[in-house]
Amino acid sequence: MLHKEWVALVLLNCLAARVSAQDTIGDARHSMDGPRAGHRLSRIADDRHSNDYDIWHDDDGTLEYDFDAWASEICAYVAFTVLSLPITIPQHYMEDDGQVAYFTKYPFADQQFGNLIIEPLWQPDLKTSRLRLGTQYGDNLDRQQKITTRLQFDTSKRYGLDASFDYLREQQGLGAHDQTWLGDINLTWRFAQSTQAEFRTGLGYNWQSDSGGSDGGFNFTYGGTFYLDHPGAVDFDLDLGWIGDANLTRITTSYSRYFHRARVTIGYEHLRLRSFDANYLIAGMTIHY
After folding, report:
1. Among 58, 96, 144, 155, whose CB has the most other CB atoms within 10 angstroms?
2. 17: CATH
3. Looking at 174-275, which runs of residues are DSSP E strands?
4. Could you say which DSSP state residue 41 is in?
5. Is residue 68 part of a domain?
6. What distance lies between CA 141 and its chain's CA centroid?
7. How many structural domains are present in the chain?
């Protein structure tokens, strides 16, 4: 058995090497101003009765094939296939074809491996839902710190809720400091699962609030958990969206060690809100119910 925990820690240390002087919280606040780029969704009309879109035309009494429309159909199919790979690949390799799964009392409970039992032969001691409550402290090793509170709720039906609240603080010298709040709430779907890994995705709402005002916007989330042979796990989360007129990107990777219902975590987080760009080393604890 490879020492997966050490591999995870090396990866986290490599990511943490990026931590350096960051932009200010004021930059995050001012990034709300200006035009939003790259996130407005365009709608494509699909009128198959229009002569401009019909693949087959019969204008002069002969049947003619529209190769431009055919090429558009092929490109759309290829684009859809490529965009769906983050979902279809985990489903394929985890051999997930919709099996029923239940939660253990807590991860690695009673010598069980991981968080789920797939197609169990018995159900009396198994759970149909899992609630996780956790808090994390983050530091950029300079002037910025953050405290994150996160709630995750999963069900055996694969649907759930994922919400987080971040308090960002920056020391400005002479006893002064700046601060702001960030948060999101998402409806999630666990689209791939096994006893060794889980993948989830979802859509939701982003927001920011402080003394200068507040704003909100759209959020897309994608993440997963890999359970190791010993009571440990590697997690990753990706959030993409916007708040007001500012694009938001958040990438988090972490390694966790389980102690009954408690999970202790160390990791790295990258947070970008247009011109605001921050990297944090994080540590925290989560309780599983």
Report:
1. 144
2. 2.40.160
3. 176-193, 197-210, 213-227, 232-243, 246-259, 262-273
4. P
5. no
6. 25
7. 1
Per-residue buried b or exposed e for 213-237, using 16+ beta carbons within 10 Å of the residue's own CB: eebbbbbebbbbbbbbeebbbbbeb
What is the Cα–Cα distance from 168 to 23, expressed in whole angstroms? Answer: 12
3-state secondary structure of 65: strand
Gyration radius of the chain's alpha carbons: 23
Residue 115, φ and ψ in degrees, nearest 5: -110, -25
Residue with tokens 């925290």: 284
pLDDT over 70 (residue 41): no
CB of 210 within 8 A of CB of 182?
Answer: no
Distances (CA, A) of 274 to 23, 84, 243, 277: 11, 27, 10, 8
Query: How many residues does this entry show for the chain?
Result: 289
Does 117 reside within a domain? yes
pLDDT in the model for residue 81: 74
Nearest to 83 by CA among 243, 192, 205, 222: 222
Secondary structure letter of residue 42 according to DSSP = P
Q: Tokens 């932009």 appear where? A: 23
User: By the 8 A CB rule, do 263 and 136 touch?
Assistant: no
Task: Tell me the per-residue pLDDT of 85-118, one tens digit each, with 9 for 90 and over.
Answer: 899 999 998 989 888 899 988 999 877 788 998 8
